[in-house]
């Protein structure tokens, strides 16, 4: 259904024009920089594709759980842990003398993200703890682990006291897709994840179980579908995707582990998943849109003088208007005019 996303985008643009004007900024120029400037050069467009890869990958994993009413809100933490686990190899083998360095990094990142997400699954199924709160708190813990490692044992002794690791060797870096850009094969990982999510949710019995658990929990229970299994599967796949995205980030544009790995992809992917209608095909489009906003936002802060927070506000408005329009399109509002006797 394209009606809700299109209406949400139009309403977001209108609301943003009013907001930018109220801030005393050139509203038209700001919106032009935000939505159109990323398409005016090949390098800017390639940066959109670079941003799109982790957003698409994480959102596809989250959407599987969301459709089963398993809400993994702390994918940012699993993203960070995936980056940490992947970084361990080049940190301890800085000369690259580890066999199959890059595949091992991706595998370590995937494993780390999955295990970190399954902590919440264990607490949910064993003690009934809310996975929303648990994953959020685990995300905060992951940030502190990152800070400890970067300020302590993993700190580059030749890094001029900056909180970062050594630069990774060449065999720990993802291959570049297009010459002269930073876009790497993590985009292919994300597209393959999209194919997997589509086939699983639309053409596999396990996807049917997940969708039934979300739409009709009692019917799923009556049919013998295991609710704990759906929780483990939903959180596990979300953590797996976030972990691979984290590993790809440090093995791609960053080339080392640093504090900037906490880029907010895990939280932005929630917006991507919902604006895409929790549909694998729709999420491809929404991840591209949010990536355009990211890159356009960097341009708008310079050319139109927008505050950095304006990009986050635009994303928040987009999610708000999507949920509003989706609700009004899907449900009919009726006013009961009967007066009780």
TrEMBL record:
A GO CC annotation given for this chain: plasma membrane
Transmembrane residue ranges: 48-66, 73-93, 99-120, 132-151, 183-201, 231-252, 264-296, 308-329
Superkingdom of origin: Bacteria
Membrane topology qualifier: Multi-pass membrane protein
Keywords, in A-Z order: Cell membrane, Membrane, Transmembrane, Transmembrane helix
One GO MF term: transmembrane transporter activity
Alphabetized InterPro entries for the sequence: ABC_transp_permease
Locations listed in the record: Cell membrane
Major site of localization recorded for this protein: membrane
Name of the protein in its database record: ABC transporter permease
Organism of origin: Marivita cryptomonadis
